[in-house]
Amino acid sequence: MTTSFIKYAFVSGEISPTLLGRTDLEQYDLGMEKIDNWFLDYRGGLSTRPGFEFVDEAVDVDNRTKFFKFIFGPDLEDTYLVVFDGGRIRFVQDGAYVLEAAKTVTELALGATTTVTVPSHGYVVGDLVYLNDVGGLSTPSRLFRVGAVTTDTFTVLSVSGQAINSIGTTPYGGAGGVAQRVYSIAHPYLTYQLRDLRSYQIRDTLRLTHPEVPIKNLKRIDHTNWTLTDEVIGNASTTPTGLVITASASGSASVGFVVTAVNLDGEESLASNMKIKTGIVDYTGLTAGHVTVTWNVVPDTQFYMVYRTLVMPGGAGSDVTGAEQVGFVGQTWAPQFVDRNIIPDFTRAPPIGTNPFAPRRIEHINVTAGGSGYTSGATVAVTGAPGTGFKGFPIVNGGVIIGVQIVNGGSGYVSPVVTFTTGTGATATATVSAATGGYPRVSTIFQQRQVYAGSNNDPLMVWGSAPGSFSNFDTSSITSAGDAFELEVDSAQVAPIEHLIVARGGLLVLSQYAIWQIQSTDGPVTPTNAVAEPQNFTGCGNLPPIIADTDMIHMEGTGTTVHLLSYNDIVKVYSGQEISLLSNHLFDVSNPMKAWDWADDPFKVLWCCREDGTLLTFTFFKEQKLLYGWAPSSTMGDVRDVCVIPERGVSRVYLMVKRKLNGRWVKMIERVNTRDFVYVEDAWCVDSGLAVAPQYPAATLTPLGTEGEVSFLSNVAIFGAGDVGKVLRAGGAKGTVVSVNSSTSITVALDPDRPVVAVIPESTIPKVCPVGTWTLDAPFTTVRGLWHLVGETVQILADGNVVPEQVVAPDGTIELDAPASRVIVGLKFRPMARTLPLSASNQVIENKRKRVVEVAARVTQSRGLKWGPSLREDDLVEVKERTYEAYGAPVRQQQGIEYAILNSGFDEGGQVFLVQDNPLPATVTGLVLEVEIGDQG
Q1: Same domain assignment for residues 798 and 911
Q2: What predicted TM-score, i.e. pTM, was given to this entire model?
Q3: Listed residue (598, 647, 648) closest to 619, CA to CA
Q4: Is the dihedral of CA 243, 247, 250, 253 positive or negative?
Q5: Residues 842 and 928 in one domain
Q6: Cβ proximity of 864 and 878 under 8 Å
Q7: How many domains is the chain partitioned into structurally?
Q8: Whether residue 1 has pLDDT greater than 70
Q9: Residues 903, 868 within the same domain
Q10: Does residue 884 register a pLDDT over 80?
Q11: Residue 813 lies in domain
Q12: Is the pLDDT of residue 433 over 80?
């Protein structure tokens, strides 16, 4: 009996062996038993994954490196991949390291050790430097590490530190060669600390947090000018000084004032030392009067805020002291204020300097002896090197110090000593905060507040800055909405807060055991209305969650399942859904996910790497509820990190890959190709690959026809006799220049398979080709610059044709058998997939032997695909795709249904392999299997 089975989509990905046969699951039949080096197209197809472009080598082969993204704006020049390695930060933009200005190479000394002469180069040992067009050592360009240096010379090493033996290479002619250093700056993080290093971008700054290191700011000033500095937590407004109180008349009353200054950014300073005036008229009683307060001018101040105590009527023991509460009485735009019995508002108080992350800050001063003879002008000082920043004033009553008001606790105090002025005999001891464990591990911006969370000492604490003042964590004695806030989430298990995610309805706070949402009871979150409501108790691991549209994808706390967190408008709670169940075999607590990032455009794929170096892709498209699936990929090495950067309107995926090439371990920064080819000659289906760069003349080109021999006109004089024989690609056409008619005109014999297709609609009139949309290239046989692949066997796609594999020569070259004008070279990877064991909804066939007789596959943009019952070469069948293409022209990409008769035997599974052995693309959107059903096994 022969039966047809149809598989019309592959959107469930690789199905776990524990679920084989679960045809009752809605998504089961949309999966595959095995996938390697394919990804799930969200439109339903199974596509060979794009290859990786070689960016360049990275240092620190054996140690951890770390990727961060910097996205200041949509333009390419505002986006960077930020690379942290052993002690240095380097920057990648548009697939290349950011470089300093070029310096002229005057001499190259060849030998077992190679020495380069660059007068006054300024390079230091360990720098990465490109040499460009410096003889056979670097043609056209090659990256080296600087070895020994003198003022004018340096030796070169491989990036991983081996000496460069240049004996036998082409000598340098002494002209045209340049050196360019890879721009970098130092960082203080130890290698193991890079794992928990987090970043959050605030405009042109990356805020870096780690629980063992002070908060730092990586700021871009210019393309090759970045700074890394400590974040300064504190009040940026200057505190007023020199208060003078003048009363309208004398009397027995007393009063105290403090003043603050509000700077141009709207930040209110800490309060001045309290100025107390005694012997004044009681102007708050029945006696008329007033007091005038003046102080020194504070530059760059918008206005001043004035606070005072109650006016004490006087008498024995009833004078005002520094212990009194002050209330707001008014603001002024000049350094003077007149108080005519204004009633203080004691719901508003001046800021108190607070830095919750400062180590060894003064938290309390305990007066052990009050002494005598102290006046209201007494001062207090705290010493204890290297401590700085303490501000406060003594509280004096009857000449005795009874306490100390701390305005700012400072930081760094070791064995602090407290001293006082104006009297004698007073002593005190200071309590300091912990020396370590106070730095937060994560940060974000929420409702115009800088928010930190999860220090080692306070793992469940969340700190929020004052609104609009990201470095200001000041509080006040009377809590107000404008103060900074602290909030500790409730949890029975103490695991540090790992992530902060700004989401609909509030701020999501994630630890290993639970997820909370910080929200307010009314309006924005403030110190007086903030609440933390639990959302679910799956928790979240160390891996940062991914925001995909309005949802969040996160690894739960144990690291074995992936969840989708979505907001429920009805119950106003975030609810979770496991999205790794069908592929649960890909997740193991002993082999956790190491890094991941979301690439929305063009394929809606989450790119992930596991601790073992395996690359996973997860396709997710919420609009189609059944479309989510996982697919593993492999390369000749281990993927160690992944990061997605928007470039030219497309999500570009960067990878850190550790490979063993030519007998040595190296780390490569590579970029996943966009897979947006139209013609097969542009299909990038190799890893760590390079392509010979096409030449884009600086002119506008106008075709005068669409096929055959066609004249092309340039708007500027760019053509010459040497252009005969070059290959033109313009408007979809490809052809060879057969004559140069003038400096602005050429005649091109177009390939029969590649006429001009860019025409004005409803006509045959060709469109004009703007600058940057057309190329003119001379065919070549030597491919250069493959230094990173020396000694390795590479696959080659030349003008769309697969040519025999080669081993890269010691000088970084390969030689083609025939000239070509568009060549892509790189390491091989093999896409392979296997269908699920056959099952049927209307009959029981699982226990019967089956034989797949024929395969019909609906394909698009495909070449060279093979089918078979096993991976043995003799069992794999490749459809003969060449039809009427011209001799030497590449086979057209296939679109439609392809058929293959298989030479298969009976087995229990009735499964088929899909294999791609060549550096060519393939996309399968559906399969029909003709299967012969045999007897029970």
Answers
A1: no
A2: 0.94
A3: 598
A4: negative
A5: yes
A6: yes
A7: 7
A8: no
A9: yes
A10: no
A11: 687-694+780-827
A12: yes
